[in-house]
Structures are given as structure tokens and as C-alpha cells.
């Protein structure tokens, strides 16, 4: 039974037959090799989920849709926090550096991006220059002061760390929320919009 599907979840079960015609060859190769796809934020028909296919190159990202009934496995970013990767790259060293602080933050957190893909699937996705991408589940507000303190901790890591705050209404970059701008970009399945409070229901209805 598949649990609720959230952005950044990794899914297995996609087949080349589910793809539309005229997709790039690398997309078919990725799916045929058994790579998972990643849930993305987009509206879709009932019984489907919006997903992205990763290719070997950074610019190779392909948006498509997957039948929920085809899902055979689901891995969430939170399940990867304590997975040990066999390879030694700055992103994984940064994860080891930050793990105890994030564990003690009081928030649920997870690993996404290239590091999450490699830790979950075993397929090579990282390189020496890879950033570490993280998510933080923040159902209630994280103050800007606390956001700034968290950025300071992330900046002690051996590589750049990008963290997304997952609010009930979408995602916002931690570094934006910790910055000086009064409005930040909130992304959800419907739109990306500038808001002053990513946790405000009133702003979403405006």
C-alpha cells in the first residue's frame, strides 16, 4: 500500500511503456535501468502522480506522470537520514557532519537531490562538486531568527547545503527565509508565488 505521496519521494515501478512517445533516449535508458523517479509538485489526473526522471547529466531532467497503481516501492527523504553511502564525496561527508544537529532540531528532516537518489537507489548520482540537498518538515512556523541560526550551522559543512522548508502550503528555500527580503518564493503544485508568511492560510487564499 502506497502512503501519501509527497514531493521528493522516490518511486519505483515506472516502465518505458508508461512514457509518452518521442521522449529523449536517455529517459528510456534511465527507466529501463530500474532508476526511481522523484515526485514533483504539479497538478495531475486522479490515479496519477507527477514525477521527474533523472539522467546522468545535471541538465537531464524530464517531467512526466506515473500511474499510482504501478508504484512498487516508495522511499521518503526521512528514511535516508542515517543511510551510509559506500562512496566518499563532500555531500556525504557534509551529511555526516550535520546529522546530529538536525536530529536534535525537533523537526523531521530528510535527504533529497543527488545524495538522496544515490543513497536510496545505489545508482551513482554524486560527484565531487555536488551540493547536499535537504528538506525540513515544518508544519508550524520556523522563525527567521531560527532560520538564520540554521543557515549558520549548514555553512560549517564541507560543501554547499541547500535546505527546503516544507510548509503545509508548499516549499520555501531556507536561505530565502533567513534573508532580508520581506517576501519569499513559495512553491506548490498550483503555482510559485511571493508571500510574506509561508505558513499563512490567509496568504494562500489571497
Automatic annotation (TrEMBL):
It holds the Pfam family MdcG_N. This is Phosphoribosyl-dephospho-CoA transferase. The keyword Nucleotidyltransferase applies. Residues 7-77 form the Phosphoribosyl-dephospho-CoA transferase MdcG N-terminal domain. Its EC number is 2.7.7.66. InterPro entries: Holo-ACP_synthase, MdcG_C, MdcG_N. Residues 86-198 form the Phosphoribosyl-dephospho-CoA transferase MdcG C-terminal domain. It is an enzyme of class 2 (transferase). It comes from Pseudomonas fluorescens. The keyword Glycosyltransferase does not apply. One of its GO terms (molecular function) is nucleotidyltransferase activity. Keywords: Nucleotidyltransferase, Transferase.
